[in-house]
Amino acid sequence: MRLIAKTLLGAEQLLANELQELGATEIATERRAVTCTADKETLYRICYTSRIAMRVMVKIAEFAAENEDEVYEEVKKIGWHELIGKGKSLYIDHVSFSSKMSESGYIAEKVADGIIDEMMNAEGRQPRFASDGPDIMLNVHATDERVTVSMDAVGAPLSYRGYRDETIDAATNEVLSAILVDLSGWTPKQALVDPMCGAGTICIEAAMKAKHIPAAKYRRYAFGFESFSDFDAELWNKVREEADSKISNIRLNIVGSDVDTDATDLAKTTTLEMKLTQEIRISRKSIKEQQRMTQEGVIVTCPPSTEEETRHGLVDFYKEMTYHLSHNFPDYDVWIYSPAKDAMDEIDFTEEKTIEVHDGVLKLYPF
Hints:
By secondary structure, this protein is an alpha/beta fold. It contains 11 helices and 15 strands. Strands 2-3-1-4-8-7-5-6 form an 8-stranded mixed β-sheet. The protein has a 7-stranded mixed β-sheet with strand order 11-10-9-12-13-15-14, with helices on one face.
C-alpha cells in the first residue's frame, strides 16, 4: 500500500529517515509530507512508534478530474463496500487547491454520492456519515493536476501521545519537541538541559527516544486503522509487543527547569507517572540559577515568544537569556527555538546554524 505521512515544515527528511528505519520503501519527500510504500505490519509499526509523523494516510486512489462530476465517477469505481465495514461511520475531510473546482464543500458532496452509490450497487447498504467521532476519516485533496483520496490510519493526531491529562499553553507540541531533539543531534551519552521546560515535553520526548519507548505507548485513542475492514488484531498485538520489548533501561542525564510552578508541577507529575524520575530531573529555577552539571552537553529550549509572557519585553528577555546561557553553560551546544523570528534576530550572539521549522526558527549557539 502507498502511504502519505504528514509532518511539520522542516522535518521532512527526519521523517523520511525514520520511515526507512521502520521498514518503509520507495520513500519520497514532499512539502510537509513523505510518501512511501508499506505493508500492513509496517503501517501498524509506523503509527505506534513514529515520533516525527503527525498523521499517516493510506492512499486509496489518485486520478485526474476536470470537474466535480468526474470526481464522482472516479470515486464510484472504488470498492468502498470492501473498505468500509458494516456499522462503521465515515467523515470526509476535504481541501481544494484546484482552480477548476474551487468549492471544496461541493467536492465532498460528490465524493459522498460516489461512495453511497457504489455501496448501494454492491451490497444494498449505505455508509453512515458522522462529523463527531467518526470511525473512519477520509481525506480528499484536489489540485489542478490530480485528486487524491486517502483513508486516515491514525484518527487523533500522533501528537496526542497520551502521557498526561492536563495541558498548559506552550509553543511546542509533542511532535515538534521530538523534532527539535532530533535536529539538535543530542545523544543519550550527553547531558540534555531545557532551562525553560514548561511541562517538560522536550525532556520527556528525549527520554522516550533514548529508551526506545514507542511514541504511542500511552495513547488513549483508538487508531483509525482499527476500523478498517481488513484490520488484523493479532498482527497489531504482535507489533506492539515487539516494539515494547525494545524499551531499554539506559541511564540518562536530562534536566528541566522553569519559573512557572504549575508547569513544573505538571512535569514532575508526568515523569513520576511514566517512571522517568531517574532519567529526568525537574526543578523550579530561573535561567540565572540553572548551572551545568557536566563539562559538555546540549541545551534544547523554547523561550517565551510573545511580549505578554515577559516582564521587560521580548527582545530584552532574549538578550538576557543568551547572556546567562553563555556564562552558565560554556562548552554546551545551545539550540533555541522560537516563532518570534524578529526577536531572535536581535540576539547579541552569532548563530552557527539556523533551521526553519514549523512556524519558527531553530538556531544553534556554540557557547
